[in-house]
Request: fold
Amino acid sequence: MGLLLGFGMSEQDELPTLLPVEIDDALAQLLHRFPLPDTILDADMNQEEIAQAFGTTVNTVAKWIRDGMPVAQVGGNGRAYVLRLSHCWAWRKGREADAAHRNRHNENQISMLRAEFLGVEVDNEAATLSGKERRELAEADIRWSAAQLNRRRLVPLDDVLELLESIGKIVRDGLESMPDRLERELDLTAVQVATVGNIGADILTTIADRIEEAELRERDVPDVDYNARILI
Reply:
């Protein structure tokens, strides 16, 4: 926000006397944080002059007063409002700083919430995308996946799971029936048959453990009872 003022005062001109005004701690802090620019001299002004200085309207200045902008002299009954330029400047700059801080905070929370929804880190680019951008990205991903599927470069996960389940059933049935077959075909003793059965059970357990290590349970796939499908 710029300050639209011009002074045609020479060094010999006498500066107008400012009204005595009490300053509370809050305003004192604002004046310390946001002093007038070095080239601007302080002045007591009416609402129209403040409106001209800040490039706005008298109605807006009146609204600012209702919102808490400092007043050097309250108007009414034929007496005009008097507004200290430096006070109005500090108040407006403080409001702008508060709004900027609030916007940064809100944008940060929005990014964090988007990241939570998307399951990504906050500094991930996806967390900063708008809803429209995420929708366009998702649509592009769907089109790419459809093209890859048509080229047989992408296989549906359900098809892979079905194939693996059928292979797992073949391995399980073969290992479980192997002791009986070896007993019949090789005339194994009871101890040998038990040893073969234990070896088969160890193989099935190792397969199940390997699936657990791959963390397939945490993937976005239907619930799969791997122990039941492989070991039973």
Summary: The longest strand covers residues 44-45. The chain has eight helices and two strands. Residues 157-231 form one domain. Confidence is low (pLDDT under 50) at residues 224-232.
